[in-house]
Amino acid sequence: MWTFPDVNDIWTPTTISSPTTKTGNEHVGLVRMGPLVAIPAILQKLGHDPDAVAASAGFELGRFDDPDTMVSYVAASKLLARCVAVTRCEHFGLLIGEATDPSHLGVAGYLIRTAQDVGTALQSLLEHLDLHDRGGVPTLDISSSATRFGYTVHQPGAEAMDQIYDLSIAMACNIMRAVCGNGWAPSKVLLSRHRPGNVTPYRHFFHAPLHFEAKESVVVFPTHWLSRPVPTSDPLLFGYLTEKALEQHAQSHVDLAGELQPLLHQCLKNQQCCATAVANQLGIHERTLNRRLHAEGTSFRQELEHARKTLSQQLLSATDAPMTEIALSLGYSDASAFSRAFKRWSGTTPAKWRNNHR
């Protein structure tokens, strides 16, 4: 039977820090070590010294002992990149994801396990995962027949994007299996990464049709699963944990620009990225949005450009999507307009950047 630890240990991070810091024009998010604690065991299983690999990436092995430790999202991504380089394992992120369960997400994970039904569980994850992760956001797209549950990275400068998406979507599957039972299975799995040379580990884990080179990383499943009761539901504990999560949100000091980036990424994917629509989602007037951003030394246009830059680099490095397709997905009229903007950001053309970042 699944049991809960002391509730005071679930939600209070060991290392208390602002969820984001800002360097120049880029927001540097933090992430809990929770899902990464399996790395030393995986390295050892693959025949490598965890201490040496961690040290070569600037990590002390002791950090893996406490899942509540907060680290830089970019630093964590560099650790993943180093693990892949050392082990030559294309699916290293998938191996980490296989070893995760909801409890690795801190309070957000315990909210999942205590929610009344699967739909409420996933909605609570959307609302509170930022207590665990300020470099990416969960996504949930619900239609009458199918639901797409996934994850998108908005952190500039993150490396090993393929590994991050493998890890995240494997974890999404483990979340669904935890709250639905063994009868649940995805209809299909989409991964925004190059097709690996060996897809067998993916087939063994997901047990579903796989689609690589996708625009998004999601698991797709029938919507009727959202109404399924969670077997470990505990309404009283769910209410208590929700209250604690809201308290922690209130104590966090995140500037508006940092809050805006994940929202802009999602709006770009939905092709609804204008200041009015974003302000409405934040529950403020467009003038208020512009005034607050101006006070922080930025503007909606600048933040939108940051989001476009990050998303374009992800698509260029992790997929073979045509330039025209990438341009349209970012809201540009054609590939030439996108190319001009990209050269302004990066000093080179999208094609040359893609060749240099394979």
Describe this structure in words.
With 358 residues, the protein is of the alpha+beta class. It has 2 domains: 7-247, no CATH class; 256-356, Arc Repressor Mutant, subunit A (Orthogonal Bundle). Helix content is 51%, strand content 11%. It has 17 helices and 8 strands. It has helices spanning 7-11, 39-45, 50-56, 73-87, 92-98, 107-114, 118-128, 161-180, 200-206, 235-251, 256-269, 275-282, 286-295, 300-318, 323-329, 335-346, 350-356; strands at 20-23, 26-32, 70-72, 136-142, 146-153, 188-190, 210-211, 217-222. The chain has a 5-stranded mixed β-sheet with strand order 4-5-8-6-7. It has a 3-stranded antiparallel β-sheet with strand order 1-2-3. A hairpin with a 2-residue loop joins strand 1 (20-23) and strand 2 (26-32). Helix 11 packs across helix 14 and helix 15 (323-329) packs across helix 16 (335-346). The protein starts with 6 loop residues before the first helix and ends with a helix. Residues 7-21 have low confidence and may be disordered.
Q: What structural class do helix, strand and pairing data support?
A: alpha+beta
Q: Give the termini separation.
A: 45 Å
- Helical stretch tally: 17
Largest sheet: 5 strands, mixed
Poorly predicted parts: 7-21
Brief descriptors of the model:
single chain, 358 residues, alpha+beta, Arc Repressor Mutant, subunit A, 2 domains, five-stranded mixed beta sheet, three-stranded antiparallel beta sheet, 17 helices, 51% helix, 11% strand
Condensed summary:
The chain has 358 residues and is of the alpha+beta class. It is built from 17 helices and eight strands. Strand 1 (20-23) and strand 2 form a beta hairpin.
